[in-house]
């Protein structure tokens, strides 16, 4: 005789990635037991996200404004656009503070397996930004996976007709990485792209 | 440059059982993308639970009223109390509609490994209910695990001095269970407790 409220919450939770019906019930119980320390903070955080966050119409970033903080920032170089698969990739790249330009979020990667086609991604938006002019460089910063690289190749073809420089992230030994633990593909790329010392 | 709202939500989510920091971020992104179909329903369900559900002071059940619907139900037999480890056990037992009495939720099981001692469970509440009189039977419906059975034995000792009948759930072949797939312990119990046919 679980109450209707509990059933509704368990159902809502079971729609989250990684939570099935059984673990959703476990989460409900945890939330009930830790009402002050877990349920309330989660509720407030969800409210804030629901009320304040919007998707940027220009680049697809998620922020408190539309256009987003990056798109309206006058100090950022509009001539360079870094294309990423999803928002967390933008977060990761921007933490480095090394890229001075703007971003464009595809919202995924091409995948025959998952049935993701070009029209499912925000590719037209990217083409429109490039076609509008004023863009010198497009960084194709997809993941170094098969699907990511397929997506990068597809974008390269679509952007061929525009006078922009296409670049990609360098492959190589990660900082702190031990050679012995690296896969052969990365090692080969690092060797091929070796640079003079000093 | 993830916004503060996203960080706060990811942190709140990472406190749920089964979600680490990385999967919490994945959930945040999913919530952002499915604002209408996932985020809003989850928010409403959490609000309902936060505003409407309370813990019953008598039995520890979670319901919209305190005392809970079962404790105040005049059709239920107050002479019989079924003791369970946690609220989902009550839900599971009550779905059978075969137990006509009241419940008592311990809020866990004794566990040397997890450092759960008798004073961490709602055992005093149970003793007080039995000591108040009017109770004929206490069903010790702990899980059939080592810790569950340890808890049942402890409760049996504590309740020894009161004039109540202590019972436990029958062990045996689950309905629909194939003998070949059952563990030997269950089979032995089922054989020992065999009953005349018809």
Descriptive tags:
two-stranded antiparallel ribbon, globular, 43% helix, Helicase, Ruva Protein, domain 3, alpha/beta, homodimer, 198 residues, four-stranded parallel beta sheet, Dna Topoisomerase Vi A Subunit, Chain: A, domain 2
Which percent range describes the beta-strand content of chain A?
5-15%
Shape, per Cα inertia axes of chain A:
globular
Order of helices and strands of chain A: HHHEEHEHEHEHEH
Rg of chain A over CA atoms, rounded to whole Å, is 21 Å
CATH fold annotation of the largest domain in chain A:
Dna Topoisomerase Vi A Subunit, Chain: A, domain 2
* Oligomeric category: homodimer
Count up the helices of chain A. Answer: 8
The CATH architecture designation of the largest domain in chain A is: 3-Layer(aba) Sandwich
What's the CATH C level of the largest domain in chain A?
A: Alpha Beta
Helix content range of the residues of chain A, please? 40-55%
Q: Report the mean per-residue pLDDT of chain A as an integer.
A: 89
- Structural class estimated from helices and strands of chain A: alpha/beta
| Number of β-strand runs of chain A | 6
| Biggest interface found | A-B, 57 and 57 residues
Largest sheet of chain A: 4 strands, parallel
Q: How many domains make up the coordinates of chain A?
A: 2
Distance between the termini of chain A: 72 Å
- Uncertain residue segments of chain A: none
Keywords (chains A, B): DNA damage, DNA recombination, DNA repair, Metal-binding, Zinc, Zinc-finger
Organism (chains A, B): Sphingorhabdus contaminans
GO molecular function, one term (chains A, B): DNA binding
Family (chains A, B): Belongs to the RecR family.
């Amino acid at each position: 005789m679980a109450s209707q409220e509990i059933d509704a919450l368990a159902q809502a939770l079971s729609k989250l990635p990684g939570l099935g019906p059984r673990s959703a019930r476990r989460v409900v119980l945890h939330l009930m037991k830790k009402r002050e320390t877990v349920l309330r903070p989660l509720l407030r955080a969800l409210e804030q996200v629901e009320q304040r966050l919007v998707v940027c119409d220009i680049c697809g970033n998620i922020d408190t404004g539309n256009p987003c903080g990056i798109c309206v920032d006058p100090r950022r170089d509009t001539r360079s656009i870094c294309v990423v698969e999803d928002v967390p990739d933008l977060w990761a790249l921007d933490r480095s503070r090394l890229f001075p330009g703007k971003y464009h979020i595809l919202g995924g990667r091409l995948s025959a397996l998952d049935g993701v086609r070009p029209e499912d991604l925000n590719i037209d938006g990217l083409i429109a930004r490039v076609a509008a002019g004023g863009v010198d460089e497009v960084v194709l910063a997809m993941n170094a996976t098969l699907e990511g690289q397929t997506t990068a190749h597809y974008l390269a073809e679509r952007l061929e007709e525009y006078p922009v420089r296409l670049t990609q992230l360098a492959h190589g030994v990660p900082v702190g990485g031990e050679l012995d633990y690296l896969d052969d593909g990365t090692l080969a790329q690092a060797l091929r792209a070796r640079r003079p010392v000093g």
